[in-house]
Design brief:
The protein is an alpha/beta fold. It contains 5 helices and 5 strands, in the order βαβαβαβαβα. Helix 3 links the parallel strand 3 and strand 4.
Length: 130
């Protein structure tokens, strides 16, 4: 399956996402903030990034801009989780990144469907990971 990076400052959300993604058969990498999330994205080259939008220190908006500017991460799809309305978030997202927005609390079946749809469009490469 896919190698998925989960970025969220809430440990409980990371736990639920980790357990859900593992149950789906995916490999999970975790980061508790935008800075470590960006570093892990560059180092680990995930197939998908599942990220919170509102985080302390650096909002998701900055993370998405950094990811879209870096040659190693600019094509990695991002699935956003947030309690904010979708319309409020969409203005901050670089248009060339394919993604979706899930409202927290995230429903397992909706999460699974979104991930499957994203991965169908962005097939993970068959390469060895670091």
């Amino acid at each position: 399956m896919a190698n998925i990076l989960v970025i969220d400052d809430d440990e409980r959300v990371r736990f639920v996402m980790r357990e859900s993604l593992l149950a789906m058969g995916h490999t999970v990498i975790e980061a508790e903030d935008a800075a470590s999330g960006f570093t892990l994205a560059v180092q680990q080259k995930p197939d998908l990034i599942l990220s919170d939008f509102m985080m302390p220190m650096a909002p998701g908006k900055n993370l998405f801009q950094d990811l879209s500017s870096d040659p190693q991460t600019k094509n990695v799809p991002i699935l956003i989780m947030s309690g904010l309305p979708k319309a409020k978030i969409q203005g901050f997202i670089p248009a060339h990144l394919w993604m979706n927005i899930l409202t927290k609390p995230v429903d397992y079946s909706q999460l699974k469907d979104c991930i499957e749809n994203i991965l169908k469009q962005h097939k993970p490469p068959l390469i060895d990971r670091p």
